[in-house]
Here is the input.
Amino acid sequence: MLDSHDVDVESRRALVTAAEELAADGLLGDSVLADPAARLPEPLAERLADVLRPPAPGVGHRVVRGLFAGFTDPGPTPLHWRETDRERCAALDIALVLVAARFGRVFGWTDQQDGRIVHNIVPSPGCEAMQIGSSSTTELAWHTEDAFHPDRADLLLLVCVRNPDGIGSRLSTVSSAGLDERDIRHLLRPEVAILPDDSYEDDTAAAREPVGMATLWEREGSLGLRYDPSYSRLLTDDEEFRDAYGRLGRALEAGSFGVPLAPGDLVVIDNDAAVHGRTAFRPRYDGTDRWLKRILVRSPRQRPARESLEHGYGQRQVDAHGGRPVLRV
Ligand SMILES: [Fe+2]
Here is the structure.
């Protein structure tokens, strides 16, 4: 079930060397792509070409073991994403961004994690039971990343900094859900309004006109999926639609599988083919907690035409490739 690849030691070393050189110039993960010359060295990109390509839609993910394992320890896990020491993380973050850029356009959101490009996913006091990445004691329910927005990521990259208790990420794909024709027909209808999740600072979203969104769409020989029941409202009382939506949830649960992540591992998720989640865990809050880095990538693919009419709740993207001054420390 798991699509997993290992990376040779030479490639790991070359990645560290390239990223450390850029970090020594004062660049950060968030600023490196504003320098048009910054990219993976070509010989390294060629060596990694087999693993740095989008997963097939039917698979929905690719795990690249140990790609980032050669970096020095970035220090204790912060208690909040805002407390991340970005200088100390610079080389790792730069490597992550350069790898992400091989997949497409790297971006962030102005209202999420202060518009940063490299997101830090750590458990935070006060967020334990929420449905966001900084939760812990509650299971993180199935979701498409940023499902509320028409320009959401096509690909999502997660990198493990540390994970001492082996807290698994979970994945499930629409292709393995085994939906019948009748359910698919219902779920192609734009009957679900999905709101921004609580990691966004804008709290005016609920007041906006709800937009009907399709849960499934036809996509080059497979189905696309847009699903985030924790932040969704069904816009119809049609029992057949509601039953189909319920069956989808159960089918995703039944077809789910865990992705064990160790320090340095990368998982690339096709955000149109797979939903992701996380099991519950007890946070330590002592600097040793699970710590992931997240990067969003856009490499436009087929989505329902009507999505282009959506307001996206006014959420705007931050383009990592330019339009912002190069920040130096
Ligand atoms: Fe997520």
Summary: The CA atoms of residues 134 and 220 lie 35 Å apart. The first helix runs from residue 9 to 24. Residues 324-329 have pLDDT under 50 and may be disordered.
